[in-house]
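User: Fold this, then the next.

Assistant: Folding the first:
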Amino acid sequence: MADGKTHLPVTGLYVVLILSWWPVALAENWPQWRGPAFNGSSPEADLPTTFGPAENLAWRTPLPGPGSATPVVWGDAVFVSAVDTSVSPGKLVGLCLDARTGAVRWRRELGPDRRAQRNTMASPSPATDGQRVVFTYGTGLLVAFDLAGTELWRRELEKEYGHNALMFGYSSTPLLYAGRLCVQAIRNARPERYGGAPGGSAESYLLAIDPATGRDAWKVTRPTDAREESQEAYTTPVPYAVDGRQEVLVLGADCLTGHALADGREVWRWTGYNPRRINHWRVVASPVVASGLAMVSGPKHSRLFAVRPGPVERGGDEAVRWSSDKAVGDASSPLLYRDRLYVLDDDRRTMVCLVPGTGEVKWELKLEGSPVFRASPLGADGRIFCMDEAAEVTVLAAEDTAKVLHRVQLGQGRDCRSSLVAANRRLYARTPTALFCFATPDVSGAAR
């Protein structure tokens, strides 16, 4: 079932665009949670127009148990995290599948699971640079393998830097970018609230690890005056590069901060999304960079802010280019695709399309169905793909007029929180029990 394409060699080479730092060598891979451009989009084409359990299905591979982690893809390898629930307590598992057949190439049991409210510790997604893959878990465990499955290094960050105290369990995915693995822990200052030892280390931090060796490159604390649950964040750091600045953006604990990639120092801070200092405004949706702005979804459907990153006066409204209460999600991160911003109101099942530079609303559409969304949307091949918690996928046209192209149920799903992925002319969908791969017959052979 070879796809006839020449897969990228396993090198660390990146071609860097001056303004966007888009790694072109990854264009047909999906190396980390929000894809090659860190915004949920892919230049992928030739995906199947329609798909389902009996249509354009290349393969379906059972998984050992649940997990909210999104699969990542490099060449003909697919990496996915899960919890093996056949034993008690569950085992955290890292898997490598063959992208052409779905066969399991290797499987590694990495540690015990730990339950949180409505969540497992297999929520952070893996990340790969084509030389190695790093699996991350909510217990603070990080394990790196080469692509053949040989363990290279492991870290247990909770043992080193304290308990990750979050109500729904640690779920942030590291950012693998420009030779650094950036790990954030934006957490509650009282670890005993969520199973940690009283008086233990509780500071929030941003950490950069050398992905080749597993050693710290730098670590900085991230102070906050946020109150109670508002200290917590489930977001993922994103890169920001413009005007010669190379930064990592971190959202949560009542602020958005920019950190120098070279040494982690905080170079600016914006504190505008929780001016009333509400004590339960944890943040889930990660920021997205568009038109030189950071798109920030305030917690609990509050507001969407377009923030101009940079050394402006701390906390000032002058950093906000525009804001909107029309397009506000909570758990789903915004998508940037073909110069349009797509914001999914996950609880109300509403999608809004905006112009990122101005906030102009192009359309708003109520999606049919009733389950909520927790996964973030995917943009690829001229379409927008969304999957709700019950494993129903809705496909929209990526145009300035709202249009539903396809709806399909992938089975009796529940708690489906993994985002859809497009890579190498294939579409991947993960449910708690299986990973689906959809492709047209010329890519996958006869669909089966």
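Now the next one, as you asked:
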Amino acid sequence: MFDPRYSVILSNVGSACSDRFMSGGYGQQLSIEEQFERAAEIDSVKGVELIANAHISSKNIELIRENLQRTQLKLVSIIPDHFGQKKWGKGAFSSKDSQIRRDAVAHTKEMIDIAKELDCDLISLWPGQDGYDYYFQADFIEERGWFEEGVKECSRYNKDIKIAIEYKPKEPRTRSFPSNVYSTLLMVNEINEPNCGVTIDFGHALVAYENVAESVAVLKKYGDRLFHIHMNDNYTFWDDDMIVASVHTIQYLEFLYWLEKTEYKGWISMDQYPYREDGKEAVSESIEWLKALNQSINRLGKDVIENLIKKGDATLTSKTLRKLLLGGV
């Protein structure tokens, strides 16, 4: 039986989320200690992810260690900051400036060292600025090569620490190099290090027009490269970071089934932007959705699901899912 481990990106539970029109956010800014407390209060949350500079740096390692011990939360991953500083504005690993590329590698290695010190085995790499905006702006071959070289160097730095590349079609660049599951898998296989894999962000995959269950299966088939997962939902036009399954309920059912079928052992981490909602309540609701959907899959049973897939009868599948979700309606 699939028994997921749930975690949350720390700022999801309390830090005020800003948008283009409300730079200070709509909620209350909370301290690191307060955010840890709120995360620990959510039923089933056993881990946290930390973002470099926003949550963790070489200057506050002891503060983070104390809060991890105090709340009994596991540090699941560190997300290096390759997106929130001016110097990364035209790329990090793929920057045309070789010094910026070296800085991107150095920053990642620094986070790897911190991860080791805090008993964390994953760096979830979101290279948000690695891409381009206009035609005739990028050398698609050379810059992808730089990206692969940099991530390969980081992967080799400490082979006990996994590096998971999180893809996204756009934002903040209008085009991202690791844009979908296939482009990212190609780069990971070119990097060709056993500790280099992929983070699926459910919302990013939706914007890439993916069926996320298929994305899970693809990463299993071609090298078992799914290392980490970020959970949220959206309307497919933008990375809205909404409550899990609030839009794509049935798609989430299939996604969870394929996580079990492919024997995914990693963490399932909440990655939301609750602009106007209470962050703790929004994350908690997401986890309750995941638990309920997982229970529905178990209630239906593996044999029934496999039979539906084998037959490929869309009407029969629809009828079965309708009765599962809505009873006799």
